[in-house]
Structures are given as C-alpha cells and as structure tokens.
Design a protein that fits this description.
The structure holds 2 protein chains of 2 kinds.
Chain A: E1 13-20, H1 23-35, E2 41-44, H2 52-55, H3 63-89, H4 106-128, E3 152-157, H5 165-174, E4 179-184
Antiparallel strand pairs in A: 1-3, 1-4, 2-3
Helix pairs in contact in A: 3-4
Chain B: H1 10-15, H2 50-62, H3 67-93, H4 108-132, H5 142-162, H6 189-222, H7 225-234, H8 242-275, H9 287-314, H10 322-352, H11 356-367, H12 371-383, H13 391-394, H14 397-424, H15 439-462, H16 468-473, E1 487-490, E2 496-499
Antiparallel strand pairs in B: 1-2
Classes of the chains: A alpha+beta, B mainly alpha.
C-alpha cells in the first residue's frame, strides 16, 4: 500500500497473466472471469476500452464525491479569504459599498472552487489508483510492455481466494488467450 | 505541402502491417473504411493498427532531431535572448524605455498579455469543450493544442509581472501577509484576473499532465536506460490497469467539465479589466462574450499555424487530416463572424447610447490617428476569414497557413486597438497624445513569441505530440463490440430483435 510500493500478494507468486488478441476477446474473457467469481484481478489495455468496466463488474468510481468536497472547500476558502480580508484584516470603503460586498467576491470564489475541484480530481484519481507506484511485478514481463502499445492483458492475482495455478491458467486458455504465463514477484 | 492529395499510405508504410486488405483502404469514401455505425468517413486515415499509431508518434522522439528542428529551436532561443535583454533593460532603466506616455499607460504590454491569454483558449476549447460535446476529431490535436495553451499562458504571465517595471513588488498582487500589513482589494477585476489566469494556467497544466500519463508509459515501455528511468518516473508507474482507467476516465470527464466554465470565465474576467472602467471604448457590456469569441478565434488560428508545420515535420498526415483543418477553418469562420458582429454592435451601441463621448471614441477609432490599426484589424479578422466559405480554401494548407497568420495579426491588433485608441484621447484635449512603440516595445513582443516557439520546439522534441491512447480509441477496431450495421431479425412471433452481429444469437436462430 501507499506511495511507490504496490499492494501485492504475499509470497513469491504474483499470479497469472494472459494476453488476448483484441479488445473484443478481452471483453468476453473479462465477463467470464467476473462470472467465475474472481475478485482480485485486472485488465491492462493501452487505452480505455469502452464498457470494459462493466464487463469486469467494477463499481462506479467514487471520485466525483472527492471533487465535490474539494470544490466546496475551494469555494469556502475563496469567500472566507475575501470576506476576512475585506471586513477584518484590511477593511476599505470602495465606492461606498459595504465591507462584505459579496457580489464582487463571486469571480475569485468561483475560480478557487474550480481549482479545488481540479486538484481533487487529479490527486484524488492518483490516490485512488495508488499512483505513483514505480515498481510492479508485471513490469518484469517483456511482453507486458505492449500493454501500453497494442497488447490486451488480463491478470489474476494469487491472493484471490479462487486462484489456483493450474485451474486459473486453464480457464484463461479456454477463454482464448494467446498466451498465459505465471508471474513471480 | 499544398492540396488535399497527400493523404495515403504513410502510416501503413511506417508502422508495418495495416489492418485488413490493402486496396482502397486509404480512400475515406471506400465503404469498408467508413464508420459502420454512422457511415461517416474515418477520422484516422490509412486504417492503421494500434501499433502503427504508437510508431508514428513515438518514433520522432527516438531519433536525432532534424536540421529543421535545430533551425527552429535555435532561432527561437535567440529570440528568447532578445526577450531577456529587453526585460533586463526595462528593469534597469524603468518603463520609460517603452513608448508609454500620459494618457497611454497601457500599450504593448497589456496587448501582449491579452493576446497570449486568448491564444491559450483554443487549447482548452479543444481539450475540454469538444470532449464534452463528444467531438472525436479532437483526439488528433488536443495534446499539442493543450501544450500551446500552457506556453501561451506562460508568455501571458510575463507581462503583468513586468509591466510596472518593478518586479520586486509583484507579490503585492497575491493575498499573502506582508510587512506593510496590507491586503489586496478584492473588488477590483485586476485582482480577479490574478486568480483567473493563474488558476487557468494551473488547471491546464494538470489536465495536460493527466492526459500525458498513459503516453509517457508508452514511451517508457519503448525505451531503455536513463530514458526509461526518466519516462518511468514521469509515467508514475502507469500500467494500463482497467481499475485505473475507470478513475482516470472519470477524472478526465470532471476536468473537462471544470475547465469549460473556467476557460469561459478567464477571458470574461480579462475583459472586465476594461469593461468595469468608465472609459469610453472600454465600458461595454458586450466585452465578456466578445473577448471569449475572439480568444477562441485567435487560438484556433495559432493551432492551425502550428499544426500545418508539425504535421508536415512529423509525418502526421494521417492522424491530423484535412478534415481536421476543415473543421478548424469552420470554427474560425464562425468565431471570426462573431467578432465582426461585436465590432459592428459596438458602433451601434455608441450611437444608441446617445453619449457624445462614446460616439466620439468609436468614430475616432475608425477614422482617427489609429485608423490604420483599426482597418488592419477589420481586414484580418472579418474579411480574410470569409475566404473559408470556399471548400478549396479550407482544403489548401497554403491558404490555411496564410489566413491563420492573418488572423493572428488581426487579433493582436484587436487588443491594440481596444487598449490604445481608447486611451490616447483623454477627456481633456490637452492630454491627448499619440502612442508610438519604441524598439523595446517591439523586441519584448518578438521575444515573447520566441519563448512560445522555443517551448513548443522542446515539446515536440521530447513528448508525444499526439495523444496516442485517445487516438486509439477512435479507431474502428478499438470497440469491444465491433460495430456493424444492426441486423434486424424476425423471430417466430414476428417480433424484432436487433443484434450487433457479434452476439448475434437471435432467439432460436442460428448465428
């Protein structure tokens, strides 16, 4: 867990890695692996394959809540800063307006809520993905380099309760994998 | 480099194999090539494989830079040198080195600032607004347009920093505790501007970096040694995990949703620097939408200028196609007419307001001492884009390039006209004065272009100029369900069952 260290299965074995020919093959394999009851597994693709999250049975991302909280935080900071500066820290009468002339504070409040939301979206996303994680057992496989080019992979981790070196590999073969191999950490 | 013909073959030839049979695949009107769902011609020509896309984008980063790149880069570095000397002299001597006078206290400095902020807007429009509108063609140009945004904001931020000639008090712009126990005045649009532009720059950088991460991983996986380590660190260990992609896509969508109102607010706030004043020529409610339309107009012109060169230099003819230029030309035509409308409406309002000062300002703008600047602006911004009505012009790279330069010039002059013509005739005729730029006005402006082009040269040299992960998603083979025209089958009860062919198991029927 955490920065630079992935959450990995204990022991020597990481799990099984299978390569599929195209997004459609991977899609069907994911549906089958999901239906077989696996939970600790993943697909690796060079681009987000449309609908693959549903084929894997992933729950919708909770990132929007992080963004909402951060954006509201930004807005509060904006109105708080301007209100405090204009009423307490350095009150100035400008064109006879009240000290807390909130309509004039709208632009900065708006910009700060955007900033908060954007920071929440980016860093929330990286945190949920546990990135940066510079080391991962899958990087040890040369074929896996194609996951960022034109390779479509499915990995099942060894700490999955249903994982069995022989039967899992057999399942992936049956699903039409071009190649299946065991990965060690 | 003129014409629409050179559209075929290059990706297939470079990237090795192409998907499917060879004959006629580069022809966008070939039935096998059109999108099977909506029967539109494909966005990416030459029916490339995923790998071919990676190759054509990544290869230029992996070979030695060409002579043309060195020429562009060294020229722009020299211009940055000019910028450095100009700014150093400004700080040493004071803003008297510029042609500013009373009453023209803002001229080239703020013109350049507004011009550069505006240039950036096309990048955000392409990356965020077109994303929300599901315009898939944006994928070919969004990376470079976003880079352009960042570099334009960098250039823009120089000018508020230096225009008072006292950079050591630039921190007065920020709400930070200081030894004078003074705080900024938040009812001023100049203060809003500090927040708008700096947050715009920050959010654009975040958005750009998020888009880059999967492509940085692609470059990492293709390289060895130190290069692999550097790109590995920048890619943060991205491994294409679908569990990551899920959050990633959500983050991307949200960023697009946040950047859209942000970009519209930025140039609106820039326009309020003028519109909230009481100066005739500035005090106009049409300014926010007028500035935003102008920003998008000028930004697209700059995208076209850069893309014509980049596409040629990097052999991206099949990723950035003539169709992309056609769309961008149409956007320039529309936004060009919007600014033309705004120019006309300003005159109408000046007359309709019944204010003698307003009317004088606008008559003076068109027929006074700066009439040359005004009519340069009108011919470049309103007349020249009218040529985009012609398909031949939209399909010719030479025309596109020349017209995009015209628009760049015209939009620079628009800001000059707004700022200088409104200032140079004060309320008291005894204060009237004519602004003439000095050598240092011009050298600072040229230097800012140097900075922009230097950053862009570095970008195309070291980072993938096309968002490959996004371009791959618009290839027909990217769909998990290969799209085919729906097959309508009738079952025994006479009911209809639409299947997409792949899962074509109609009830009781053979598939």
């Amino acid at each position: 867990m955490g920065l630079l260290r992935p959450s990995l299965p204990p022991g020597k074995s990481f799990g099984a890695l299978a390569e599929f020919a195209d997004p459609a093959e991977l899609y069907h394999a994911c549906e089958a692996v999901r239906d077989a009851g696996y939970t600790k597994w993943d697909a690796h693709t060079p681009f987000p394959v449309h609908g693959l999250d549903r084929a894997m049975g992933l729950k919708p991302s909770r990132l929007p809540w992080v963004v909402l909280v951060m954006a509201l935080g930004g807005a509060l900071a904006g109105i708080g800063l301007q209100g405090w500066v204009s009423t307490t820290a350095y009150p100035l009468v400008i064109s006879g307006k009240p000290f807390f002339s909130w309509p004039a504070f709208v632009p900065v409040t708006f910009e700060l809520s955007i900033l908060g939301g954007a920071l929440g979206a980016v860093f929330g996303m990286f945190a949920m993905n546990q990135l940066p994680t510079l080391y991962h057992p899958l990087f040890g496989k040369t074929s896996f380099e194609r996951a960022s080019d034109d390779g479509f992979f499915l990995s099942i981790e060894s700490w999955d309760p249903k994982f069995d070196p022989d039967r899992t590999v057999e399942l992936l073969r049956q699903l039409g994998a071009k190649e299946v191999e065991l990965v060690h950490s | 480099m003129s014409g629409t013909q050179n559209e075929s073959g290059a990706i297939g030839a470079k990237g090795g194999q192409t998907a499917g049979s060879s004959a006629g695949l580069a022809d966008p009107n070939h039935p096998e090539n059109s999108d099977p769902v909506d029967h539109r011609a494909p966005l990416i020509l030459g029916a490339p494989t995923f790998h071919a896309i990676t190759e054509v984008v990544a290869r230029p980063l992996e070979r030695k830079p060409t002579r043309g790149w060195w020429i562009c880069f060294l020229t722009s570095v020299a211009m940055v040198g000019v910028l450095g000397v100009s700014i150093a002299w400004l700080f040493w001597e004071g803003i008297g080195v510029w042609g500013l006078n009373n009453p023209v206290g803002w001229a080239f400095d703020i013109t350049n600032f507004v011009f550069w902020v505006g240039i950036g807007h096309a990048g955000t429009l392409i990356s965020a607004i077109l994303f929300l509108f599901r315009q898939k063609w944006r994928t070919s140009i969004n990376r470079s347009a976003e880079a352009m945004t960042l570099f334009a904001v960098m250039c823009a931020l120089i000018f508020p920093g230096i225009h008072i000639g006292r950079p050591w008090v630039a921190y007065w712009m920020f709400p930070i505790p200081n030894q004078m126990a003074m705080w900024p005045q938040f009812r001023s649009p100049l203060m809003w501007d500090v927040f708008a532009v700096s947050i715009y720059g920050s959010v654009s950088a975040l958005f750009w970096f998020v888009g880059l991460v999967p492509d940085l991983a692609t470059i990492r996986d293709r390289s060895t040694g130190l290069r692999r380590k550097i790109f590995g660190a920048l890619a943060l260990g991205w491994r294409g995990s679908m569990r990551h992609w899920q959050h990633y896509e959500k983050a991307y969508l949200i960023l697009a949703g946040l950047a859209t109102p942000l970009v519209l607010s930025v140039h609106s706030i820039v326009s309020m620097d003028f519109a909230t004043s009481q100066l005739p020529g500035w005090h106009t409610t049409i300014f926010p939408p007028y500035f935003v339309a102008g920003a998008i107009f000028s930004g697209f012109a700059m995208v076209v200028t850069l893309m014509v060169i980049t596409r040629k230099a990097f052999g991206l003819e099949e990723i950035i196609t003539m169709k992309h230029f056609d769309y961008m030309a149409k956007i320039m035509l529309v936004t060009g007419m919007m600014v033309g409308y705004a120019y006309g409406l300003e005159f109408f309002i000046a007359w309709f307001s019944g204010s003698a000062y307003e009317l004088f300002t606008f008559k003076n703008r068109a027929f006074g001492p700066y009439a040359w600047a005004y009519w340069t602006m009108v011919s470049c911004n309103v007349l020249s884009p009218q040529l985009f009505w012609f398909k031949k012009v939209r399909g010719s790279l030479v025309w596109l390039f020349v017209l995009s330069i015209f628009v760049n010039i015209g939009m620079w002059f628009e800001r000059f006209v707004i700022i200088v013509t409104s200032l140079h005739r004060d309320f008291l005729p005894s204060s009237w004065f004519y602004f003439r730029p000095t050598l240092f006005d011009v050298s600072t402006m040229i230097g800012s272009f140097g900075l922009f082009f230097m950053m862009f040269c570095l970008f195309v040299r070291f980072l993938p100029v096309v968002a490959t992960a996004e371009v791959k998603t618009v290839l027909p083979q990217a769909a998990a369900h290969p799209p085919q025209a729906p097959v309508i089958q009738f079952d025994e009860q006479g009911g209809r069952d639409a299947t997409d062919g792949r899962f074509g198991l109609a009830p009781g029927g053979a598939a």
